[in-house]
Amino acid sequence: MEIKLLDLQRQYKKIKHKIEPLVKSVMESQVFINGPLVKEFEEKFAQFCGAKYAVGCSSGTDALLMSLMAYGLGPGDEIITTPFTFFATVEVILRVGATPVFVDIDEKTFNIDTSKVEACVTEKTKAIMPVHIFGQCCNMDDIMAIATKHDLKVIEDAAQAVGATWNNKRTGSMADAGCFSFFPSKNLGGFGDGGIVTTGTKELYNKLLTMRQHGIEAGKPYFHSCIGGNFRLDALQAAVLTIKLDHIEEWQAMRRENAAFYDSYLTKVVTPLRAPNAYHVFNQYVIKSSQRNKLKEKMDEKKVGTAIYYPYPIHLQPCVAKLGYTRGDLPVCEKVCEEVLALPIYPELARWEQKKIISLVEAKNDV
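Above: the chain sequence. Below: its structure as tokens.
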């Protein structure tokens, strides 16, 4: 019997009785862009994160892009980030014309190695973009201290980390801006693309509101005060996400229980480290094995869903070759990319399914 990496149908069956009437009400209202449901979700999400403001947008990628644009980052500016992330993190830096500066990662948490960040700060550095990879926060104390010392902006890429904390502070509340994705596979996923930016400053909030609608100032139709884009969050997505947000803490607890079960029985692979100051929400459960490829082949053969996040270090991707990085420059990231494998971790995963997965990993086949 197939075990999927993620089975969203199981989740939907449990909450469809809540979602379907609300989606129907949106269709009957015919208010699909902005509107009261978007505003309600923004306020609810900001409160959840512990942030003052939130601006819904069209995707996690656009959340990052809007933030960079709002701060006027562009050609000649350097932004420090990680080479171990989904490509959108780096893509948006390149799209605004700025230069990504990569810092190697911590081999145990997969997050940016904060002990190496300050050495990369130059007079061109304008921001740090940490990525809370797989649902575990970076060391935000270190990052914010460096940013304060050098007068840098900090933009959290929290696409995989809704509800994760560092020293009891949730993602989206610790930096100048927090960027989230509501892609369906995320811990908090919509019925399509969606994203949001959180912030503690009214100035950035107002700028983002203007930018997400082509730079049109509120109350001044067709008056464009800045260059923005079509970055709006659909009301249908806001409706779905509002319902799901009520369940997110329950789902996180279930993910953590599943992770603990894996931890108790997996001995032949390296299981994920939980940083002492972090609350890990396990958007992914990622193990390491020197025989990763053989293990994945076996899991594929047995119809168990797994995925490699990520097989290629970003600093070695062909499209960023002009940055001048070569193999060996960021050795920890390069090694990790050869060893990581994500196992199913979603809340509705049955215990018997986990036991089957564990038995396959633990079988005697040199993995």
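The chain has a mean pLDDT of 96.
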